[in-house]
Amino acid sequence: MNDRSSGTPQATAAESFTPFVDLARQMWPRLSHEIESPLNVEDVQRLRGLGDALNLDEVREVYLPLSRLLNLYVAAAGELHAATNTFLGETTRRTPFVIGVAGSVAVGKSTTARVLRELLRRWPETPHVELVTTDGFLYPNAELERRGLMQRKGFPESYDRRSLLRFVSEVKSGAAEVTAPRYSHLTYDIVPGGEITVRRPDVLIVEGLNVLAPARPRADGITGLALSDFFDFSIYVDAKTSFIEQWYVNRFRSLRTSAFADPASYFHRYASLTDEEARRTASGIWERINEPNLLTNVLPTRGRAQLVLTKDSDHSVRRMLLRKT
After folding, report:
1. Are strands 307-311 and 317-323 parallel, antiparallel or unpaired?
2. What CA–CA distance (Å, rounded) separates 231 from 225?
3. Which of 175, 182, 286, 305 is deepest in the core (most CB within 10 A)?
């Protein structure tokens, strides 16, 4: 029988079933209409990255509802922990709720992570929120030079993956105190002797390019652990590649009069470039390093996230894809 004869529209499987709930931005604020944003203009200016379009409307309409959702997930994890204790007849301490934030260079994932840290700290259930970026687990420049990886900084092989996994594993296991290396964007290197100490937070946010990468098979054929195995929730900040490239170029040009102007900056040699020279230099770096890394290693992990935040050309979040549970 022809389906059209029944008078009932027949949707394809792809149209009928998807693992995500697709929410336009105008729908998102309704999910937290009863709460007021705790951030002001000064907070927003302090938290947003160079080139980001973050403003109070974005905080109220996107990040405040998201912080409410995460607050509910943290509460649910606590209830599950209590139920497990009851079943086992034990009284064990809750371990931190771990959130991964992934996305390309220049897409604004660092701003997303910082804003969520500030908002989650304002919820009574999660006053202690820590943020760690995977930059601190890059190999030092001297080691990258030794391995011939300086031009692949940010690619998966440029990270001390074992140390990163150990760090998150120890935090998630409830260790009283765990340390991570400190990274300097000024010197573009690990700070010798510098450390970040994490002490049993309620929530740990782990932000980085490759945090959602799947586990890699070992030489013996056995697949090991992935960093995301320790995540309770994960976010991918997304945008068209052409948008991200333009944001990267714009940011590079702006840095000439800020970070690059510091004589101690690794990139001080770029401070005197003209606008056109800066555009060509930034475009070249993007095409050689950042775009290949995005297309090969970062973008393929988008489907592994529980929430995808999609940005428009003006850097504002326009759509949210939330994985069904």
Report:
1. antiparallel
2. 12
3. 305
Closest by CA to 42, choosing from 56, 52, 28, 21, is: 56
pTM, two decimals, is 0.91
SS3 20: strand
The helix (run of H) or strand (run of E) holding residue 206 is: strand 203-207
Q: Which residue has the tokens 């700070």?
A: 191
Backbone angles phi, psi at 62, to 5 degrees: -120, -60
Residue 298 in contact with residue 206, Cβ under 8 Å? no
Cα 183 from Cα 192, distance rounded (Å): 9
Position 8 scores a pLDDT of 37
In CATH terms, 20-85+93-323 corresponds, of 3.90.79.10, 3.30.390.30, 3.40.50.300, 3.40.190.10, to 3.40.50.300
> Between β-strands 317-323 and 20-24, what pairing exists: parallel, antiparallel or unpaired?
antiparallel
Q: Is 155 helix (H, G, I), strand (E, B) or coil?
A: strand
What average pLDDT does this structure show over 237-255? 97
Give 310: exposed, middle or buried? Use CB within 10 Å, 0-12, 13-18, 19+: middle
Q: Tell me the per-residue pLDDT of 11-39, one tens digit each, with 9 for 90 and over.
A: 444 455 788 888 887 777 666 656 777 88
Nearest C-alpha neighbor of 140 from the set 183, 185, 105: 183
Question: 174 is written with which tokens?
Answer: 């409830």
Q: 69 exposed, middle or buried (CB, 10 Å; 0-12, 13-18, 19+)? A: middle
Q: What is the mean pLDDT of residues 53-78?
A: 90
Quote the pLDDT of residue 32: 61
% of the chain residues with pLDDT over 90? 71
Asked if residue 193 lies in contact with residue 184, where contact means CB atoms within 8 angstroms, the answer is: no
